[in-house]
Every structure is written in structure tokens, then in C-alpha cells.
TrEMBL record:
Its EC number is 3.2.1.23. The keyword Hydrolase applies. One of its GO terms (molecular function) is beta-galactosidase activity. Residues 229-338 form the Glycoside hydrolase family 2 immunoglobulin-like beta-sandwich domain. This is beta-galactosidase. GO terms for biological process: lactose catabolic process. The lineage of its organism: Bacteria, Pseudomonadati, Balneolota, Balneolia, Balneolales. InterPro entries: Bact_Beta-galactosidase, Beta-gal/glucu_dom_sf, Galactose-bd-like_sf, GH, Glyco_hydro_2_N, Ig-like_GH2.
Length: 969
């Protein structure tokens, strides 16, 4: 404890009755902060209640706010730890490759970040509090902003009401009857088990996949005194059309007598360039019982400023209760004047169409293990979201603290919290389980606590529920809250396509309109998702778009300076080194990241091209720390850039205004005419008048090879707004090259690469090259004699044939989906290598590689020298990190070999990219530049064509089923 803190505590003791002045969080005489050291004891046997621990002192201590995990309390994680969360791929517990990572003291779990301690069960927290004389005849309330998650409170030896178990809102206890001036003992039991109410072990509100099932209390912890006649609650219902707000003020009366006086309302704007002071309004009141509800229509006037993403103007309303013969009581609330509605299949904010460009927040907080409760940190996150062109965040199966709503109000972000549940694995809704009542209670508390915030525009019960009777239950859920609180829109749950629709919902969040629906499997931008949404008469938001996996950034490991450690990253890095690829991690991350960016661009543009669409929700803009380690973000788990795409680059295809092009394909021949039709998606603050739009095509040197202007026009608030068509005769491009189409609309631009290949390629010089489809006897003899051999091994590969490669990368990750294909993350190559002199390429996958990668075989290069570098290297899933090759060159025997597992032989008249790559490779082999830098034994090459059963098994088959935790099977 620091010297200043010790002096402060000593001062508090000496002041006695004035202790509240020195220990309150903001020098408010009616508040006492409870931050500081608390006595602490773990109750792993759950005997504390029966043994009356509330009457005992504990030997251990812990600082609060905080968590047990944060302060090293709990048990070391072991192979027997009973985690809160599903483990779908249990191979870690028995696979021989992982044996070294299962050793006690240094276990490296691959499926999520590793906490220093783990504990599920009750824990007890206790301290003394001193109540000043000035609090006599006042209401006294305890507020615990974010406990995790069930709390039971005692004052001295008396339990305070029933336990509370909200995962989303502060726990508040009325201590008035149990506190008197002087010293008392305050004891809090926190229980983080799912025994009584199971919201689902994978719910992001408590799962070890994300924030973790921590035990503790974070955020504000305080006692507050208020007059016996006081304001209990203020609910604010903006009326945009009439420029007024309906204030519903709940007044509590604990005097036992009739109380009368006046309620005075005043308001002023903030978070805006313009100041607006609203004249005060006074209303008389008379409370004859213990409570009274006043409804007051407070006119704000024509100067009122409306709230939205472009102008997040806010108001602060002050309600002051002036009671005859009693101290006054004040309460403030923040709100924004906004109306969020469903207009057909679109959302509207204050009557203006809005397109939701969203991401999920899955509650990953590696430094603390729990969500921040301060506004600046949430503002940082939301500003990052907006820097990437997005305007919306969905909270997958959890609800953030109040600071998130305040920050979103200030930044201008539309939020969809959920009632802290994923009731699917081991629990269902609508079937009479405790979660049914819990979701109604939790939603009620969320609406009561955060309902005034302008950013809170949508609400769902949770994610992907199970249950035979879920539709009936969720219909009733939606109907109830539509009637109870119409300030936002409601849906039953966020769901995939196999879930039934809840027809009473105001909107859908469903996975139908997502994915890359390329015509005939050829990449292009002609498609949209209209067929998926055309029969829906409500706003339809795409559920969990993207999920494109990327290789780990091992530089992140040192960033985990808080509670969680990235031992999963350490494991993946070790596998990489063991397989002869030490130092390749950053290159793999960058190359796979470029492919991921290309995929997200295609995904988002398809959504923006869909007429009548309401929006999308990415999974995620930032990485997901669990479920097998799902690195699917262009940002890391700390909401920071990784280096392969900037916010400015991302925003070109995800912004308020986005130029779009419908292009049939990205690979063309020079006997064709390139054609594209241009359009724009625009959901800005207002239509764009007399806008000029233009297009240009440039080569890789930046030289403009064609350009043109579209007709000047007005751009309304809509998408699929046509700009015009463009075309370019490609006959002048004799050499293979990459071109770039860019479309500009006002200050917004977007672009697309496409490739032009000769329709007739010159026959490569092959006189000195033996071509084969395997390492046959003749090929061996030629290599031994010092000749050159090209092997097109496509379809003949045995070692590596189980590695399934698509053009697109791994979906989510291979662990969570138990090695469902694809298994690779794109390719890495050196574009300056002379083998690619006639084949335009970057160091990563792009669309000209589609035909050469999609469903094409790869070679597993086990047995090749550690230093061996393939010409084209598929990037394996980081859960295995096998050294793979698509095209390799080597000195074999006395000769030189170039071998490809992608098909460079068949239907070349229909496959211009394959034809061009073949020509470039043979030109290279025919030149004096063909000098492979690595020597490989003939037997190692032969192994590529042998079945895996004919080789030494890489895996051990030892049975270690006893290592698995009982509940993780």
C-alpha cells in the first residue's frame, strides 16, 4: 500500500464521524466509496453460509474493485480444470504433438488464453464501514456496479434481502433498516457457478473463451445516502416529432406519512458545437403512500438537437425534488433525442434511412479479464470502430457496463446488447428451465438501467437458443418488451439459418445473406443477397459475417502484460519452429492478412450491393480469443492494427458512402473487353447534390491507361444507385499484367484489381525439360544424369492429400470445427523470384490465384531440410503448422527439379492464369536463372507420392483419455 493511501486511511479513522468526507469517491457527503482492501476467503467447499462466515474475520485480503484472477487468488490451471466453455477438439489432451505442452507448471492450452488462476464457486469479501451521524433518517443503498455474478450481502449478522444475480447491471441493496451511525461489518458472498441459473457455458458474459468466468466485483462500489423522500428512477421517452421528452419519474417515500412538494426539471445540451439551455419546468407532487409515478411532458423547443451517428448531440436532464420540510434530492440522466424505427426492410434514425455496418464485441479483455467500466476506454474502442467506417456494435450474448453506453452516445454508435445468454449447450429456452425467468428479469434490469441512452437502439435475448418451444417463448418475449419499452426495436435472438424465425420480431439477425456467392465459382462482384432477403418484410441484418481466419501475430505475445497470457500463441510458435519454419510467423501473418482483407472487402461490398438490405454484423473487426483461438479480426484482441490493412484502406469499402462496381470476373484475356457497371451506396446525413463521379484504370506503375466521367447526378440515401457503365478493350495489353479500376464519388473512392493475360501464350522452351506427373523411373534417371525435370503432381500427391485447400482461408478456426475444410490460410511467395517474371503476383493470394489454389492439392514437405523454402507455400492452419508446398524447386541427384501440386496441364485453353503460370515457370526453367538453392534427397521427393500409411506416423497413438476433465468430452 502506498504512503498516500495509508495517510488517507489514517485520516479517515481519526475523523470518525466525518470519515465519509475523506473516503468518498468524489467528496460527496452522501457517498462513501468502498474501494480498498477487503478481507477475503475462498469457499470451495460451499460451507460459508452454514458456518456463518459473515460473522467471522478472514486472514487473507484482496483489493476491490477487482477479481480473484487479477490478484492471484484461486487454483493453478491443470489438465483437470473444469472450464466454463465447450471444447470441441479435445486432441490437446491426448495428441502426441502436444505432450510437451501438457506438462505441469507450463501448460499451454491451444483453445484460449491462459489465466494465472482459475476458480468457480463462492468467495467471501468483508470489511468494516462507518456510517456518519448525518445519515440518520436517510435511505442508504449499496451499489456494486459489476459483480460476477451472484451476490449475497450481510450487514453484521443480518442478510440483506434475497441474493441478486444480474450479469449485466449493478446489484443494489437497500440497507436502510440495518445501518445506523457507527461501525458495521459489511460482508459480500460472490458465487460464479452456473448451478442455479444456466445461461449457457459458452455465453460471452461468463465463458472462459472470452472474458472468463471470473469471481469478484469491478466498477463503482459505494454506499449512498438520500432523503427519505427521494427520486428512485427517471425514464425518458423522446418524442422527436413534437420536440419533447416524456419524463416518467418514480418518487419513493419512506417516511410513512404523506409528503408533498415540487419536482423541478431542467435540461441542457452537451457533446455538441451548439449550446441549448431548456427552460425549467416545475410540477407539484403529493405522495400519500410509499411511492408515486409522475409523467411530465417536457417540451425542448424548436432548437432541439437530434442525436445520430453524424451528430451525437446529447442532453443532460436534472430532476430536483423539493419536499416540504426535508432536504432536496437531485438526480441526473443523459439522453439523446432520437427515434429508431423499422421502415419496411430498412432501419431509420429520426426518419432518415440508416444502413448498419457493424461488428460484434465478444467480451475479450485480455489485460483484466473483465470489461472496462470507464468511459475513455470505451471511447477508444468506439472511435476505432468508426475509423473503420462502421457505425454499429452487437454484444454477442452479453451486455456491457454503463460506461459503454455513455461512450457510444458520445461517439455516435448504434448498439445491440443481449441478455447475457447463449442458451444452447446444456440449456434451452421455453422449456421451463430457470433461464426462462432469468432472461425476462435480466432484460428488465438492462432496460431500467440503460434504457435512456440514445445508442441503445436494439435488443435481443441472446445468441442461437435451443429449445423445442423457443419460438413461442421468444414471441412472448418480444411482444412483452415492445409493449413495455418502445424506445428500441426487439428481436427474439441472433441466429443462424437453421434456427426458426421469431415472427413477432421487429427485425431479423440471421445468417442467410452472407458469404461469397460467386457465379459458377468464379470470383466477381456481380452477386448480392437479394434472394435471401426478398421474402422478408422487416429489416434483415446479416448474422456474423466473415469469420476469415488469419495467422497469429507472435509480436502480440509481449502485449499480454495483464491477467491473461497468450500461451496458445507460444504453442503455435513452437510448432512452427519444430516444423522448420522459425521466423516465418510474421510473413505468414502478413500474407494471410492480405487475403483476409480481400475476403472482408468482398463480403462487405456484397452486403452494400443488396437492395433493401438493413445491414451486417462482422464476426469480428478484432480477434476472438477463444473457441480454439479464432483470429478472425483485422485488429488484434486489443483493438490495435496488425499492419496489413489500415483504417483508411478498410473504410474505402465500408464507409457511409462507398462506390461499388459489378464486375463479372477478375481474370481476363486480351481478346476480351473488360466491362463493369458502377453504383454507389450512400447512407450519409443527407443526399449528395450535383455529385461528379469518375473512373480510371491504372497499371501497377500508377500510369493511367483509361478513364472517364459519369453523368453528374443527385445521390439519394439508398444503395444500388446506378452511376453508369464502363468498358475497356484489352487488346493493347500484350503482356500479362495487373490493372486497377478505381471509382470516385465526391470524396469517396474504392478500387478493384483485375488481371489481363494473353489469350495465346508463346510455347515455352521445353526441349531440355522432362515433363512427368510423378517421380517415375525416367525422371529419376534424368535427375541422376544432371537434367531438368518438371513434375505436375496434381492429383498424384499422397503425403498432404488430407490437407484441403480452398482459395478462401480457414473459417473461424480448425479446432472449433474439428478440422472441417479448408485447412489453409492462403499462400506466401517471393514475387521478385524469376519464376514469376511473366506471372504478375504479389506475395500473397489474390484473385488471379483462384483457379490455381481452390480445391487444388498441396504437398506436405516433412523431411525436407529445415531451411527449405517453397516457391509457393500454402500457409497451414496454425494448430498444425505443417510445412506445405504448392510449387517447389530443388537440386535432386545431379539435376534440377521443379514440381507443382496445382494443375498446370489440363484445360489450359479455359484457364488463362494456369496457362500463364506454366509458361512463366517453363521460361524460368529454360533460363540460366534456374538454380535451386536447396538440395533434397530423391527419397524425400518420392515420399510425396507415398501414402501416409507407408511413412512413419507423425502422431503417437497412446491413450491418455484420463487427462480429459470429466465435463470436457
Amino acid at each position: 500500500m502506498g504512503m498516500n493511501r495509508m495517510l488517507q486511511r489514517l485520516t479517515c479513522v481519526l475523523l470518525g464521524a466525518f470519515m465519509f468526507l475523506g473516503c468518498s469517491s468524489n467528496k460527496n457527503p452522501n457517498q462513501i466509496s468502498l474501494s480498498g482492501e477487503w478481507q477475503f476467503k475462498i469457499d470451495s467447499l460451499d460451507i460459508g453460509v452454514s458456518e456463518a462466515w459473515y460473522a467471522k474475520n478472514f486472514d487473507d485480503s484482496i483489493p476491490l474493485p477487482g477479481s480473484m484472477m487479477e490478484h492471484g487468488k484461486g487454483f493453478e490451471p491443470t489438465l483437470q480444470t473444469q472450464w466454463t466453455g465447450s471444447i470441441y477438439d479435445s486432441s490437446f489432451y491426448y495428441d502426441g504433438r502436444y505432450e510437451k505442452y501438457r506438462q505441469p507448471g507450463d501448460i499451454k492450452f491451444p483453445f484460449w488464453l491462459t489465466p494465472p488462476k482459475h476458480y468457480v464457486g463462492p468467495a467471501w469479501y468483508s470489511r468494516e464501514i462507518t456510517i456518519p451521524e448525518q445519515w440518520t433518517n436517510k435511505k442508504m443503498e449499496l451499489t456494486l456496479e459489476r459483480p460476477h455474478w451472484e451476490t449475497t450481502v450481510w450487514v453484521d449478522d443480518n442478510q440483506v434481502g434475497p441474493s441478486q444475480r444480474s450479469l449485466s447491471t449493478p446489484h443494489k441493496y437497500d440497507l436502510t433498516e440495518l445501518l445506523s451511525p457507527g461501525t458495521h461489518k459489511l460482508t459480500i458472498r460472490v458465487d460464479n457457478r452456473l448451478d442455479e441459473v444456466n445461461v449457457g457455458p459458452d455465453s460471452h458474459s461468463l465463458t472462459d473463451h472470452t472474458q472468463g468466468n471470473w469471481n469478484g466485483i469491478v466498477g463503482d462500489m459505494e454506499l449512498e445516502a438520500s432523503p427519505l423522500v427521494h427520486i428512485d428512477d427517471i425514464k425518458l421517452y423522446p418524442d422527436v416529432q413534437n420536440r419533447s421528452v416524456r419524463a416518467v419519474v418514480s418518487i419513493g417515500n419512506m417516511t410513512g406519512e404523506t409528503a408533498a412538494g415540487e419536482l423541478r426539471l431542467s435540461a441542457h445540451s452537451f457533446n455538441s458545437d451548439q449550446t441549448h439551455e431548456v427552460p425549467a419546468l416545475t410540477e407539484a407532487f403529493r405522495v400519500e403512500g410509499d411511492s408515486l409515478i409522475l409523467e411530465i411532458n417536457y417540451v425542448l423547443g424548436e432548437e432541439v438537437q437530434l442525436w445520430d451517428e453524424f451528430n451525437p448531440a446529447l442532453y443532460r436532464i436534472t430532476a430536483e425534488l423539493l419536499t416540504e420540510g426535508m432536504e432536496s434530492h437531485r438526480q441526473q440522466e443523459e439522453f439523446g433525442m432520437r427515434e429508431f424505427t423499422a421502415e419496411g426492410t430498412r432501419f431509420a434514425v429520426n426518419g432518415r434511412p440508416v444502413f448498419l455496418r457493424g461488428t460484434l464485441d465478444c467480451a475479450g479483455f485480455p489485460l483484466t479479464g473483465y470489461p472496462p467500466t470507464d468511459i475513455p476506454e470505451w471511447e477508444r474502442i468506439f472511435k476505432t470502430v468508426k475509423e473503420h467506417g462502421l457505425n454499429h456494435v452487437r454484444y454477442h450474448s452479453w451486455c456491457p457496463p454503463e460506461a459503454a453506453f455513455k461512450a457510444a452516445d458520445r461517439v455516435g454508435i448504434y448498439l445491440q446488447p443481449e441478455a447475457a445468454s447463449w442458451p444452447n449447450h446444456g440449456v434451452t429456452v421455453g422449456d421451463g428451465q430457470p433461464v426462462d425467468d432469468y432472461l425476462m428479469e435480466e432484460t428488465s434490469q438492462i432496460l431500467d438501467e440503460y434504457g435512456n441512452y440514445a445508442s441503445f437502439v436494439m435488443m435481443a435475448s441472446g445468441n442461437e437458443p435451443g429449445g423445442r418451444n423457443q419460438v413461442e417463448y421468444l414471441n412472448n418475449y418480444v411482444n412483452h418488451w415492445q409493449e413495455e419499452d418502445p424506445r428500441r426495436l426487439y428481436t427474439g435472438a441472433s441466429i443462424g439459418m437453421s434456427w426458426p424465425v421469431v415472427p413477432e420480431s421487429d427485425f431479423l439477425v440471421r445468417s442467410g445473406p452472407r458469404g461469397l456467392k460467386w457465379k459458377h465459382g468464379t470470383p466477381g462482384t456481380m452477386f448480392d443477397h437479394y434472394e435471401s432477403i426478398k421474402d422478408t418484410d422487416m429489416p434483415y441484418v446479416a448474422h456474423e459475417n466473415g469469420q476469415y481466419n488469419v495467422f497469429p501475430d507472435f509480436r502480440e505475445i509481449e502485449k499480454y502484460t495483464g491477467v491473461y497470457k497468450a500461451k496458445n500463441f507460444e504453442l503455435f510458435r513452437s510448432l512452427l519452429e519444430e516444423n522448420g519454419m522459425k521466423g516465418k510467423g510474421h510473413d505468414f501473418m502478413m500474407a494471410s492478412g492480405k487475403l483476409q482483407s480481400i475476403m472482408y472487402k468482398a463480403e462487405i461490398e456484397a452486403a452494400l450491393r443488396t437492395p433493401g438490405f438493413a445491414g451486417f454484423q462482422l464476426l469480428d473487426l478484432n480477434d476472438f480469443p477463444g473457441q480454439g483461438t479464432a483470429l478472425i479480426g483485422v485488429l488484434n484482441a486489443f483493438w490495435e492494427e496488425k499492419g496489413y490493412i489500415s483504417p483508411e484502406e478498410f473504410r474505402r469499402f465500408s464507409d457511409v458512402t462507398v462506390p461499388l462496381a459489378r464486375i463479372e470476373k477478375f481474370v481476363w484475356e486480351n481478346n476480351e473487353t473488360f466491362r463493369a457497371s458502377a453504383e454507389v451506396s450512400h447512407f450519409g446525413p443527407e443526399p449528395l447534390e450535383d455529385i461528379e463521379a469518375r473512373w480510371m484504370i491504372k497499371n501497377t506503375d500508377g500510369k493511367e491507361v483509361a478513364s472517364g466521367n459519369f453523368d453528374t447526378r443527385m445521390i439519394p440515401l439508398d444503395n444500388t444507385i446506378p452511376l453508369g457503365a464502363l468498358e475497356l478493350n484489352l487488346s493493347e495489353f500484350e503482356q500479362a499484367q495487373r490493372l486497377n479500376l478505381e471509382i470516385e464519388v465526391a470524396d469517396h473512392a474504392n478500387d478493384w484489381d483485375f488481371w489481363v493475360f494473353p489469350s495465346v501464350s508463346p510455347e515455352p522452351e521445353m526441349a531440355e525439360i522432362h515433363v512427368a506427373d510423378s517421380l517415375d523411373a525416367r525422371a529419376i534417371r534424368i535427375l541422376e544424369d544432371g537434367g531438368k525435370v518438371f513434375i505436375d503432381a496434381a492429383g498424384k500427391v499422397q503425403y498432404g492429400k488430407d490437407v484441403i485447400q480452398y482459395f478462401r482461408p480457414v473459417f473461424w478456426n480448425t479446432s472449433w470445427f474439428q478440422m472441417n475444410p479448408p485447412h489453409t490460410l492462403g499462400i506466401l511467395l517471393n514475387p521478385e523470384h524469376p519464376a514469376f517474371e511473366d506471372f504478375p503476383t504479389q506475395y500473397h493470394s489474390n484473385y488471379q490465384w483462384f483457379d490455381l489454389l481452390d480445391r487444388q492439392q498441396v504437398m506436405w514437405l516433412e523431411g525436407f531440410p529445415d531451411e527449405f523454402e517453397p516457391l509457393v507455400q500454402p500457409i497451414d492452419t496454425y494448430h498444425l503448422n505443417r510445412k506445405l508446398g504448392l510449387i517447389v524447386e530443388a537440386k535432386v541427384g545431379n539435376g534440377k527439379l521443379l514440381m507443382s501440386s496445382t494443375d498446370l496441364t489440363n484445360r489450359l485453353d479455359e484457364r488463362p492464369a494456369a496457362r500463364q503460370l506454366r509458361q512463366s515457370l517453363f521460361k524460368y526453367m529454360s533460363s540460366d536463372k534456374f538454380e535451386p538453392p536447396y538440395a533434397v534427397e530423391m527419397s524425400v521427393i518420392q515420399d510425396i507420392f507415398r501414402k501416409q500409411s507407408e511413412r512413419i506416423n507423425f502422431y503417437t497413438n497412446e491413450s491418455t483419455d484420463d487427462l480429459m476433465p470429466e465435463n470436457q468430452d
